[in-house]
Write a structure and sequence with these properties.
With about 150 residues, the chain is of the alpha+beta class. It has two helices and ten strands, in the order αβββββββαβββ. A hairpin with a 2-residue loop joins strand 5 and strand 6. It is globular, with a radius of gyration of 14 Å.
């Protein structure tokens, strides 16, 4: 089934905030799903939101993003939690995504994960009372509560 309306609302809120920031600072391109991320012949994933830095825009092709984006955002759905937290997290790490955000609209949290030695490490889990900070985008600091506004 299609994602629930809460999922879509969170995706729109986040992609708008991220797109406005990236565009204002001329940092690269933001895409909202469905956009294929082609990592190998058998690993083609469709994240909710992704960012490709300006110096890597060569991986943007008509058929999708061919190679790892710099940032991938997955918004948890009731049916996708384990896949997003375990399977996709492992695949994105394996292929070199620099930062991975897991946003949970039910817990109202945003987990920022960064590349570690053998897996993604959790940089921090942010709550609605906090402003998100990202090692990849250090000046991007939206209020996490804005992700979940109706």
């Amino acid at each position: 089934p299609s994602p629930r309306t809460l999922h879509q609302l969170v995706c729109i809120n986040m992609s708008t905030l991220l797109h406005n920031y990236v565009t204002r600072h001329k940092l690269g391109q933001v895409f909202a799903g469905p956009t294929d991320v082609i990592l190998s012949n058998i690993n083609v994933l469709v994240p909710d939101i992704l960012f490709v830095a300006k110096d890597r825009e060569g991986i943007i092709e008509d058929r999708g993003i061919v190679g790892p984006p710099d940032l991938v955002v997955e918004v948890i759905s009731p049916s996708s939690g384990e896949r997003d937290r375990v399977t996709k997290r492992r695949i994105y790490y394996k292929y070199g995504v620099k930062e991975y955000w897991i946003v949970d609209p039910f817990a109202k949290t945003a987990e920022v994960c960064v590349i570690g030695k053998t897996a993604f490490d959790t940089h921090k889990i942010f709550t609605p009372a906090e402003k998100l900070n990202s090692p990849l985008l250090p000046d991007f600091s939206p209020s996490v509560s804005d992700f979940f506004k109706r």
